[in-house]
Amino acid sequence: MSKYFSEERIAQFWVFQLSGWTGLSIVSYFSLNLWYDQPEAVYLGHNILQSVLGVIVSWPLRYIYRRVWNDALVLRIVYISIAVVIFAGLWSVLRLAVFQWMTGETGIWSDFGGWLFPSIFIFMCWTALYHGFKYYRLVGEEHDALLRMESARNFEAARAARAESSTREAQLEMLRYQLKPHFLFNTMNAIQSLVATKRNERAIEMINALSDFLRYSLYSDTKQFVTVKDELAAIKMYLLIEQARFGERLSVEMNASEEARDQLLPSMLLQPLVENAIKYAISKSEKGGALMIEAYCDATHLNIDVIDSGAEVSARGAAGASGVGLSNIRQRLEACYEDDYSFDLHRTKEGGVRAAVRIPLNHSETMS
């Protein structure tokens, strides 16, 4: 890209260089050759040749001005003034010598000042146009850079908005699930059964679990990312409620390494996976089943597996992989991590389903 811009700028310089000196030649023809009644070819040839000399003599000024561009302003003015006088003087000497050679006129060196001062004016105009165009181009480049930065900010803002939107959708989906009549009925019926059998401590534990689970869902509404240990604590509350329904039919095991417990992940990411495992595996089996949640780290990523023992029916498919909950997980992961994540579901040797999530470590550092 830089090579393209360099070639483009060189082309632009020569377009302006040739156009400017050609324009000077035309102006000189009408203001000097015709005004002083010098239509002869020799004078016209000198007019053209002095513009050619102007192209050649002024060309090094571009490199001089680029060299002093970053110097202090006063120093730049001094260097530019000296360069203008020197190169204007050189051009004056050359065009006066050529004029004398082409026309055969003599005794014109005494009028050197009359050739020098217009030359200084012309080279001052050349310098002003060069700096004006360069400043114009820099302003344009800065404007383009600001637009690119703004576009990048808008992209990041849109990405964050998608992540937040997906998070809130998951939270609303979770609350809708909690408020489903059959869920509340099963939960309250289980509590009533515990009270009726005078298992008050267990009933209180159930009520507290339901209360804490609802409180967590409302609290996490303000946090896009939570630690693994907080997420597992919320899942434990959810499973306490489900265990009241399934009793000994549901066994749960949670394992998280010390490093994994302090890592961050999108809030309520695991609840749909646990819900799917219970819905499509545990509840489909008369004997119930086991649910295992593991969290561990490798060199660059956090890995979380939700594994169930499988159902006694064969038509389970991929654990409801096309469901709304799992689709929401994929959308959230993509919004949060772009391509730096994986989410897979596949059967285990024992006939269950393993849902595996892999996301970068310490994601809070890249999102803050």
From TrEMBL:
It comes from the Bacteria. GO terms for molecular function: kinase activity. The chain crosses the membrane at residues 12-36, 42-61, 73-94, 114-133. Residues 170-250 form the Signal transduction histidine kinase internal region domain. It holds the Pfam family His_kinase. Keywords: Kinase, Membrane, Transferase, Transmembrane, Transmembrane helix. PANTHER family: SENSOR HISTIDINE KINASE YPDA. This is Histidine kinase. It comes from Congregibacter variabilis. The lineage of its organism: Bacteria, Pseudomonadati, Pseudomonadota, Gammaproteobacteria, Cellvibrionales.
